[in-house]
UniProtKB/TrEMBL annotation:
Pfam families, per the entry: Ras (PF00071)
NCBIfam families according to UniProt: small_GTP
A GO cellular-component term linked to this record: membrane
Organism: Myriangium duriaei CBS 260.36
PANTHER family according to UniProt: RAS, DI-RAS, AND RHEB FAMILY MEMBERS OF SMALL GTPASE SUPERFAMILY
Protein name, as recorded: Uncharacterized protein
Keyword Ribosomal protein found: no
InterPro entries: P-loop_NTPase, Small_GTP-bd, Small_GTPase, Small_GTPase_Ras-type
Tagged with keyword GTP-binding: yes
One of the GO BP terms on file: signal transduction
Tree of life domain: Eukaryota
């Protein structure tokens, strides 16, 4: 069975753990307890094909920036999370994205193949605007999220871990991209176990 290693990155308090636990354990975590690193596995069926997801829930705090390189090296695909109710978390996305690029380029990762034109391809990244249930607290518009995703060449979705809106889609679409890359011969897209 194919194993896909997905890494969830984003600022502290944006709901990375809530999204991960909603996906893997089907419940919403109300309390905020900063994560250092937690890994969850879940066997899923995506488009009729079984696979194993290994989801790495990471620390958003700046103190753990050195650990982030290793998390990125190990990841096949990425879920970059911000809270729609926090402009500051949205503004941090480019630095997370740039770190993914830098680490994948430096490691010569198979999920970071060079395209025929010589420009590097990038591991699939989904930009997720979490907490879309907090409409009255919104600081980042859907259009802004979509525009940044286009600029970075990522997919984009708004989600709510609390109301279980687009949680599966956020992760499953990364797997779909990994499968497309693998079929077209670009990157590993996951490892067989």
């Amino acid at each position: 069975m194919t194993l896909h290693k997905l890494v969830v990155l984003g600022d502290g308090g944006v709901g990375k753990t809530a999204l991960t636990i909603q996906l893997c354990l089907n419940h919403f975590v109300e309390t905020y307890d900063p994560t250092i690193e937690d890994s969850y596995r879940k066997q899923v069926q995506i488009d009729g094909q079984s696979c194993m997801l290994e989801v790495l829930d990471t620390a958003g705090q700046e103190d753990y920036v050195s650990l982030r390189d290793q998390w990125i090296r190990d990841g096949d695909g990425f879920v970059l999370v911000y809270a729609i109710s926090s402009r500051a978390s949205f503004q941090q996305l480019k630095s997370f994205y740039n770190q993914i690029r830098r680490v994948k380029e430096a490691s010569g990762s198979p999920t970071f193949p060079s395209s025929p034109g010589g420009t590097p391809g990038l591991s699939p990244i989904m930009l997720v605007g979490n907490k879309c249930d907090r409409v009255t607290e919104r600081e980042v518009t859907t259009q802004e999220g979509s525009a940044l995703a286009r600029e970075l060449g990522c997919d984009f979705i708004e989600a709510s871990a609390k109301n279980c809106v687009n949680v599966e889609k956020a992760f499953y679409d990364v797997v779909r991209q990994l499968r497309r890359q693998r079929q077209s011969g670009g990157g590993e897209g996951g490892s067989s176990k």
